[in-house]
Amino acid sequence: MNGLLTIEGLSLSVPTGHVIQGRKQVLDDVSFSVARGSATAYLGPNGAGKTSTFRILCGLIHADAGRVEFAGEPVRSGLPARQFGFMPEQPHFYRNLTPRELLTGLGRLSGLRASDIPARIYDWAERLGFSTVLDQRLSVCSKGQVQRVGLAQALLHKPEFVLLDEPLSGLDPLGRERVRQVLHEVHAAGATLLFSSHILGDAEAMCDAVVVLDQGRVVHQGEIADLLKRGNSWAVVVEGDISRLPAGRFVDLGHGRSRLLLDGEAERDRLLDTLRKCGECRLLSLEQDRQTLEQAFVKLLKKGEQS
Prior knowledge:
This protein is α/β, with parallel strands linked by helices.
């Protein structure tokens, strides 16, 4: 897969006060790329700079320094409007409009033919589950319904690239499952996704790549599978005298049995080698304890705090 979006050296600072003025560095030399056809999770704690990055990509604010390229072309004032869609974390729409009225206007702004818009609106309303409120004012729609309308407006014109800021926020379990399915379908149809989420289980299930941001800096980028594999641990259950085994996190299971957690394949191999040479202890079970994206994410941030 070739790169669709490339960001190099993106930096942004903002004023910190009115009376006592200063500057806060929000983004500090941020660089990463998004492969065409990929689904990339853009992760970080609150205040890491994720939304600021999205606002720069949308042309809502300008970076102090850095370069953005989309499909090999430089981007100076936001991504090309007809080639990308954006769903903000908290969509703010004209509340007196109905979803049908809102999406009709946004469809025209996205360059859709007027004759194509009604069918597209109904299709997305059906797929995302808000067709029953299409002609109801947004002011009386639930938060979850407004959230789904927000996703529909990002996808209505079938963009090549989709930016999603917390797309599953405010949804009930059924709504989350429906939105996840729709995003899987959009990705499978060829769209490139870049989205932020604090629900890391959803990010792990939906994405193949990840960029982790902390305090305005990229601390990791790459394939999710590689990140999870690097942190794999092994759960070993042995029986017998463990005094000659390498020191580790042993848990006494009773009846002469102990459970040991090992970090990585090197520790696993050292233990197995010791067991082969030691006749006083025998192996009962060996299982890979695969870490989740959330566990890997926490480890990365803790490592950054210690350095």
